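Before our next group meeting I need something from you. Please put the record directly below this note.
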Amino acid sequence: MAPRATRNQSPPCDPDGMFAGMVVFLVHNGVQNRRLQIWKQKLVQMGATIELRVTKNVTHILAMNPEALLQEVGSERLGLFKGRVVLYQWLQDSLSSGEKVPEELYLVNLDADKSSSDYNSTENETPNPKKTKLSPENSPHTPSPKTPKALNEDQVTPLQSSSPYSPPDLNSNITQIFGKLINIYRALGDDRRSFSYYKAIPVIERLPFKIQSQDQVKGLPNIGKSMQDHIQEIVTTGKLSKLEHFETDEKVRTISLFGEVWGVGPATAQKLYEKGHRTLDDLKNEESLTNSQKLGLKYFDDIKQRIPRNEAQEMERLLQKAGEDVLPGVDIVCGGSYRRGKASCGDLDIIITHPDGKSHRGFLPKYVKHLKDMKFLREDLVFSTHSEEGTDSGVDTYFGLCTYPGRELRHRIDIKVYPREIYAFALIHWTGNDVLNRRLRVLAESKGFLLDDDGLFPATRGSLGQRGMRGSASLKFDTEKEVFEFLGFPWLEPQERNL
C-alpha cells in the first residue's frame, strides 16, 4: 500500500507532478487555516513551489475572492503582476478530478464590468428554463419550512419537472472532431482553446437538425467566427485541416500521446519530448517518471479499454459486498457514466458514506486492504486520508487500478469516502456529467452560493460584483433532489444527466 498522508508524515514531493513549474503565492484572507495547510501540502507534493510574498518568480496567485486579494496584495502590486490570479476553487476542482482543470474557468478579473470566472457566466450558459421567482410570503424574515436550518434564506420555488434530456446527436461528425481537439489542446497545456471547444460541443449536440451550413449556427452561444469556419469546413469536406495538421505534426502528436498516460501532464509531456522520446516504448527506461506514471505507462492499453456495463455492474456488487464485510450498513455507489446509464464506462467512480455520520472515519484504509486481499485492487496511484485528522468534513481518497475477477486487465478506479452530511453533493458531482455540474455551479453562484463536491456554501457578494467569501459551513440536504430543488433546477434522474 502506498504511504498516505498523516500529521507526522508527508508524502514525497513529485517534481513532475500535476502542478510542476508553478510558483504560487497563497492569499490567506478568507481561508480557514486547516484548509490552507492541506492545499499548501498538496501543491508542494505535486510539484509546485510556494512563495511567501509576490515576487517576479510567482506564476500564480490563488485567492478566495477579489476582496481578499486586494486586502492582502494591494492594487498597486497586482497592477505589476504578470502571472495569473485564480480562485482557490480551481485548486479544489483540480485535486478532486485528479488533473488540472482549465484555469480560464476560475480567473479573477478585477475589472468590475467583466466576469472573474466561469462562476459568473453569461446568460447563455445558464439553464434554459425560465428564472425562478421568489414566493411573496417567503420574506427574509419568514423562513420557509423547506429552507435548510443552516441559513434563513429566501425560499426559491422549484421549477416544474421537465422531460428527460435526450440530445438528437445529429452532428456527431462535428462533435467528434471537436472532441479530438479538446484532448490535443489539453495535452499542449492550452486550456483556453481546449475549453472553447468543450463549451461548443453541448450547444451543437442540442440542435434538432443536421448542420448543412455555418449560417445555421450564427448567433448561437459559444460558437464564434472561427468555430463557424471550422463547422463549415467539416460539413463541406468531411474533415478539418487543423486536426489533420495536428495529427501529422510530430511534436503535437507525441505530446498528445504522452499526455494520455495517467499522471503525465502537459509540462511533463513537453519535457519528455525535449529529451528525445517519441514513442511509449521510449519512455520505458525513463528514470524521471514517478511510480504512478510508470504504472500509467505499463497499463496504458488496459486503461484505455472501456468497461462493459454488465461487468461494471458486477464489480459494483463486489465492492458493495466487500464494504459490508468491513462496515455493515455502509453506502457504496458507482457513479460516473455507469450511474448515468451508459453502455460502458472508462473507469469506476466509487462514492461511499455511512448513514450514522461517523463510521466513515477510518473506513478507507481497512476497505482498501480488504480489496487487496481479494486481489481486486492491484496497484496504488493516489492514497490520502483526512477524516482521521480531526476534521469531520475530511474526504478520503484512493485512486488505483483494479481487475475484473479472474482477469489481469487493469481498470482505473477512484474511491471517495464522504461524511454523510455532504454525501448528496458528492453524488451529484461524481455522477456528472461535466456540463450539468457546470450549470449547477453557475446557478448556485447566481443565487449567492458556492457549490462543489463537499457542499453548498453561502457566499457574500463583493463590492466589485464578484463572488464573495465561502461560508464555513455547508447547507444541509439529505438527497440530491433536495439540492436540485433548492437551486431551482429541474430534477433529473441519474440516467437523464447525459446533457
